[in-house]
Amino acid sequence: MLTDMEIPFIYGKIADGVNFTDRETDQERLYLNFSGLVNTVLIAPRRWGKSSLVNRVVEKFADDKSIIICQLDIFNCRNEEQFYKSFAQSVLKASSSKFEEFIANVRKYLGKLMPTISLSDVAQTYELSFGVEFKGNGMSYDDILELPDKICRETGKKMIVCIDEFQNIGNYDDTLAFQQKLRSHWQRHTKTCYCLYGSKRHMLLDIFNSYNMPFYKFGDILFLDKIERGKWVDFILSRFSDSGKRITPDAAGMIADLVKCHPYYTQQLSQQVWLRTENTADETLVFSSFLDIVGQLSLLFANLTDTLTERQINFLTAVSDGVRNFSSAEILAKYNLGTSANIKNLRKAVLEKDLVDIFPDNHIEFQDPLFEYWLKNQRG
């Protein structure tokens, strides 16, 4: 049983241990890919638990000293040079058990790049940066991309490199040339596998699922599905029980239904219901907690709609009403969408704003189910 201070639902952070639920099939597939050094691309909408899944699987290799786990987030890498610095630092840190070893490896593998190393006494962390003299000194950024393979060949180990927010490379100057460079190096690495994922599904699809792109068929593409309603109900019931509280099965199912099984919001709403529960949570408590969360987000949603055109809002309203055939004369008139020629542009606009996801069967779904509820029920 949980202690009084432990909250049994986690959101906005990596879900680990008992906070992680389901995805047994995805875990097994990713584990086998990592074990066989198969490159993997994870594609799913935002906040569906990609990072938690990767973290869950790499934990299974924690006691295997023959495998090096390297994880990096390139969200703040705005150009190639920042990517190289982050990549080199992460690979060398993962390959070093202590600071002295890190320094030795920097000198061994990157000495010609004139790197500088700084150590923070407060956080006991160290960072690697490169001096301005790296150009024309006989070593190029290509050598940085070879780091994982070189280290593995020299140590006899294998390496799993996991890169979050990978879609950001699509915004770099001359991104096609950069992607070609990455693939030309990484596809030759026999002791390393790469797991690439991020928070913008449509951009990842452009990088990995387009025939004319360098990363086409780079590895196994794993499309994550939503966690099933039944799994969420079992999880919510269990976590309430572990904490000494209770929730009715109908109320647990209502949580999943209201947020459409969205992992982030399922955890958030479950937490808010749990915090408001003295003994037993029912459906009335679930709905009031849901409305409270929507209310907290209403200003954010209002500001978001201010960035949209009237027809983009009308299009989203049609999506929330379950419309599938947007080009029919009746739908165009009902939602004031203009002509059928506008539909393609409207779809593209709301997709690029990360408001919806468009699935292979052409089904359109809101990325944020609470924004959908607010737009349909509370927008003035």
Describe this entry's structure for a reader.
This protein is of the alpha/beta class and 380 residues long. The chain contains 16 helices and 11 strands. Strands 2-5-6-1-7 form a 5-stranded parallel sheet, with helices on both faces. Strands 3-4 form a two-stranded antiparallel sheet.
Largest sheet: 5 strands, parallel
Residue share in helix: 40-55%
Helix-and-strand structural type: alpha/beta
The H-and-E topology, N to C, reads as HEHEHHEEHHEHEHEHEHHEHHHHEEH
Mean pLDDT: 88
Number of strands: 11
Approximate strand percentage: 5-15%
Radius of gyration: 24 Å
How do the strands line up in the largest sheet?
A: 2-5-6-1-7
Poorly predicted runs are 131-138
Can you count the helices?
A: 16
Envelope shape: globular
Cα distance spanning the termini: 45 Å
